[in-house]
Amino acid sequence: MRRPKDWFRQAELDLEAARDNQRTGHFEWACFLAQQAAEKAAKALHEAAGTEAWGNSAAALLAGLEGVPPELVDLGRALDKHYIPTRYPNTHPQGAPGDLYTAREAERALADAEVIVEHVGSRLSST
User: Fold this and answer.
1) Number of domains the chain contains
2) pLDDT per residue over 20-76, tens digit each?
3) Which of 41, 43, 74, 116 makes an SS bond possible with 53, Cβ 3.0 to 4.6 Å?
4) Which CATH number fits the domain that encloses residue 57?
């Protein structure tokens, strides 16, 4: 059974959690959750299209869909850079991710995810 609305709802919830983490200064989690929102939004489109959606790369998931502008795939690429380093200290020369991510990075990640989620929402509402 396909569940695009559930995938999209979770994308919206992840985006909301990203905003909450940005407000409280947990910029690494804001970036990670922004990536998660984009990934789950892309999976919602795959569900709606009846195509398989494997993996965690928002860019690859978006690139595998018809009608997705290249600019959105580029936003997915930027967000995918937050998938692992936001959570694991050994992906950085030193320091915990929570001490390394900035408000500006979180702001950018949220803006990128919002564009993707809005695009997906408009496509899902037209089906």
Assistant:
1) 1
2) 999 999 999 999 999 999 999 999 999 999 998 999 999 999 999 999 999 999 999
3) 43
4) 1.20.120.330
Instruction: Write a three-state SS string for 52-82.
Output: CCCCCCHHHHHHCCCCCCHHHHHHHHHHHCC
Instruction: Give the C-alpha distances (Å, rounded to integers) separating 106 from 13, 110, 120.
Output: 16, 6, 21
Are 47 and 4 spatial neighbours (Cβ–Cβ below 8 Å)? yes
CB-CB contact of 87 with 96 (8 Å): no
- Tokens coding 113: 């995810």
95 secondary structure, DSSP code: S
Containing domain of residue 60, as a range?
4-125
pTM of the model: 0.96
